[in-house]
Specification:
2 copies of one chain form a homodimer. Chain A has 288 residues and is of the alpha/beta class. Chain A is built from 13 helices and 9 strands. In chain A, strands 3-2-1-4-5-6 form a 6-stranded parallel beta sheet, with helices on both faces. In chain A, helix 1 (12-21) links the parallel strand 1 (2-6) and strand 2 (25-29). The interface between A and B is large, with 69 and 69 residues.
């Protein structure tokens, strides 16, 4: 199978590598060519100098870039990947972006006989490197059937969740849930610190019960140590929460805590923590 | 070992039963005597008509009642359990109450040579019935050494977390964390509903990752069904959050989301949901 991978960020770089390691014929494109050259050297794959050139002759084209505008830039227009794709090809966008963009891309692709799936991922950089991502998919059954074995190169789980946009909507729910979990954990650990409790003994006691969460289990040690220079960046979380808050206006749902936590992340950015892990909500208490 | 158990609510009733089943000589007291009579019939234990009478001649006295005032009523005063306890005895309070009351009781007990542990539990009614509670303990090592085998009759885990009051403080952290988790989950599931996502498929996809929690795993089914008539009651959660918010004023920690969620639970009470499970935060969206 001939595939193109567009966008070699902390996620895309190892994802494209897993595809090559799985035996696929992979051609990459990245806006800064240096990174594409490094990837080619590491994985012995091919590279192209435009998204359209990368997509040319491919069965499946995958993208994983920054935001809606970046997706438009690499997929649409005369140099965009879609211009080089023909009937029967499949376009997959792994970027966390808006549901409306996903629906627009699905429409544009369909009118050329090209399949489209919105397929944001979770699991972070570690998940991408270990091939253990989760892929949340929106689109049509027959397109998912083609994509599923491709996803298996870098994911431990993928699921088709509904029509175009459903993958993006599911990712929004994921981020909304995380916002509440992390802020509750930050308030709890700050309270514990102020109350003089031993954090390790506390977490050992409460983590298996009704207060337990992935965040508590995987982030309490670094939170107790007040360390945040790793993980999923606050800058990206703000982008994702912004998309969710915008979509909530469309569908009429209320997000009081997600909106409040988004404002707390804005404070973290002002503190210089845009690249810190999302668990840095605790730093609003400890470093002010 | 001769023990007294004071307070046969949904928690105390099965807890006292586990003690009797473990071979201890158990005497119970409950403010409404009918329930004590029913307990005696079911477990073939003894009952008394006052806390002092129940405590008389016991090595360990355990209480599990409603709030600070209830604790004072059953433990202090001329009819209270403490009046009948002598040097070398141990008093354990399983009630979720304030840390200041725990310190006060520890002081009063100590001055009579009586040991005291504050030991709130988590795990709910099901945990009490199945003998699978978690016990968060504050007090002294030698007293915990006596209590530990007693706790094992109805708990799967107990831990001494520090001096008197530490058990209560840990329970407060537990409830603060839960407030954030449940509200995030409620906002996420409501958003999913408004967005037209299939809830089951969504949770299957996101529950193993960074958004995952005990609450998501154990409450999503009933939340999707909009059912809340079970579990840990909103009335009790408000009591617990009230204690935590009060303590936060003492120790100078901020609880923006826990306070907001407490106000949401007040709305649930106004909707007639005081006895609903804490996951009913979703009903603020679905039933209004």
């Amino acid at each position: 199978m001939k595939v193109a991978f567009i966008g070699l960020g902390v996620m895309g770089y190892p994802m494209a590598g897993h595809l090559k390691n799985a035996g696929m014929d992979v051609c990459v494109f990245n806006r800064s060519a240096e990174k594409a050259e490094r990837w080619c050297e590491e994985y012995k794959g091919g590279m192209a100098l435009s998204p359209a050139a990368a997509a040319n002759g491919c069965d499946v084209v995958l993208s994983c870039v920054g935001n809606d505008n970046d997706v438009r830039e690499v997929l649409l227009g005369s140099d965009g990947a879609l211009s080089a794709m023909h009937s029967g090809c499949l376009l997959v966008d792994h970027t966390t972006a808006s549901a409306s963009l996903a629906r627009e891309l699905h429409g544009l692709a369909s009118s050329n006989g090209v399949g489209f799936l919105d397929a944001p991922v979770s699991g972070g950089q570690a998940g991408a490197e270990n091939g253990a991502l989760t892929v949340m998919v929106g689109g049509e059954e027959q397109d998912y059937a083609i994509a599923k074995p491709v996803f298996e190169a870098y994911s431990k789980f993928s699921k088709l969740l509904g029509p175009a946009g459903s993958g993006q909507l599911a990712k929004m729910v994921n981020q909304i849930c995380i916002a509440g979990v992390v802020q509750g954990l930050a308030e709890g650990l700050n309270f514990a610190r102020k109350a003089g409790l031993d954090g390790e003994a506390l977490i050992e006691t409460i983590s298996k019960g009704a207060a337990g969460s992935w965040q508590m289990e995987n982030r309490y040690k670094t939170m107790l140590a007040d360390q945040y220079e790793f993980g999923f960046a606050v800058d990206w979380m703000r982008k994702d929460l912004g998309i969710a808050i915008e979509e909530a206006k469309n569908n009429g749902s209320q997000l009081p805590v997600a909106e409040l936590v988004d404002s707390f992340y804005a404070e973290i950015q002002e503190m210089g923590g845009g690249r810190w892990d999302t668990s840095s909500l605790l730093a609003r208490f400890t470093r002010k």
